[in-house]
Amino acid sequence: MIAYKGFHKDLTCTMGKGRFQYIPGEWHEEDEANCGENGFHATDNPLDVLFYYNAADDRFFIVDVRGNIDEDGTNSRISAPKIKLVKELSRDQLYHEGVLWMSIHPKATWARVVKHETGDAGGCGNIVVRGRSPMAKGQTGDRLYIIKENKDGNIIEIGTYKVDGEKYLPNTYYDAKGDVVSDKKGVRKAAHA
Question: Is 109 helix (H, G, I), strand (E, B) or coil?
């Protein structure tokens, strides 16, 4: 099963037995897997990784987990007796994977980093905003993921925009279409004013 995992910059993680050192491409094994107790923890939803690892120098991987996988209902956390680090992802790639995951699982519980209706990346790099009239803003270099849903919670539009200071301006709210909107009751302004 493919899942996602975060690590400290040195590819260690805290486990019940202390810190564990991971090596990319190698299988690591434990005798059993019980969420919150033992095994190798990962998440099904890429954005749930950020609940556990969200420091500026943390690292992220796509992992392969095998064996008797345990779930405990804490976000999309799982625990498996076998794990292999398959591919490292940048933070931007992790967000992209998370938005893709949401498009495939529109009714799943939102990760904590997803904002409802309005959000400001504020120079942190990425923001995901979801709702019926979502809008997001950021600083130069931030990436805005804006996900519009219908009244039934189904995703009907996804916009991804990088605040570049030219086409997409800092401190300016954009909707899922990439149009400029006002933060006061969602009043639309001229596109890319």
Answer: coil
The CA R_g of the chain, rounded to the nearest whole Å, is 18
Is residue 99 within 8 Å of 145, Cβ to Cβ?
yes
DSSP 111: P
Closest CA to 38 of 82, 95, 86, 99: 82
Q: Is the pLDDT of residue 91 over 50?
A: yes
Dmax (CA) for the chain in angstroms is: 60
Give me the residues paired with residue 136 across strands. 119, 174
How far apart are alpha carbons 97 and 104 in whole angstroms? Answer: 11
- Please state, in angstroms and as integers, the Cα–Cα distance from residue 116 to each residue in 68, 90, 112, 128, following that order: 35, 24, 10, 9
For the chain, the average pLDDT equals 93
* Distance separating alpha carbons of residues 7 and 12, to the nearest angstrom: 6
pTM of the model: 0.91
Angstrom distance (rounded) from CA 172 to CA 149: 21
